[in-house]
Amino acid sequence: MENLKKGDIVIIRNTIYARHGYSFKNQPLRVFFDAQDWYIPVHTDVKSELTDIEKDNIKLLLRYERNAKEYYDYFGRG
Fold first, then answer.
1. pLDDT, tens digit, for every residue of 40-72?
2. What is the pLDDT of residue 44?
3. Which DSSP string do the residues of 4-72 spell out, in sequence order?
4. Mean pLDDT, residues 19-43
5. How many CA atoms lie within 13 Å of 49's alpha carbon, on the beta-carbon side?
6. What is the pTM of this model?
7. Angle 73-30-14 (CA atoms, 0-180°, nearest 5)?
8. How far apart are CA 16 and CA 11, in angstroms?
9. Which residues pair with residue 78 across a beta bridge?
10. Cα–Cα distance measured from residue 71 to residue 58, given in angstroms and rounded to the nearest whole number
């Protein structure tokens, strides 16, 4: 995770919500997930559908996201 760009971590984290059919208000996320053939936006609140493992993963990803650097060289170094 530490070698991923912040934008990649954002996508990974939001994929959890997208898999539950979350309808994104954030335009870039909506455009990204609309391009996925499996994505069907149907809910504006999916928190009650998240498993404990998904909730823990979201918390972990948010920690990485807050500390991620936006740009890395080809070898994953900042």
1. 999 999 999 999 999 999 999 999 888 876 555
2. 94
3. S-HHHHHHHHHHHHHHTTB---SHHHHHHHHTSTT----BS--GGG--HHHHHHHHHHHHHHHH--S--
4. 97
5. 12
6. 0.84
7. 60
8. 9
9. none
10. 22
Rounded CA-CA distance 21/1 in Å is 25
Average pLDDT, integer, range 18-23: 97
Residue 67: burial class (beta carbons within 10 Å; 0-12, 13-18, 19+): exposed
- Contact (CB, 8 A) for 9 and 30: no
Average pLDDT (11-29) is 97
CA 13 vs. chain centroid, Å, equals 2
Cα dist from 44 to 13, 19, 48, 54, 61, whole Å: 16, 13, 11, 17, 21
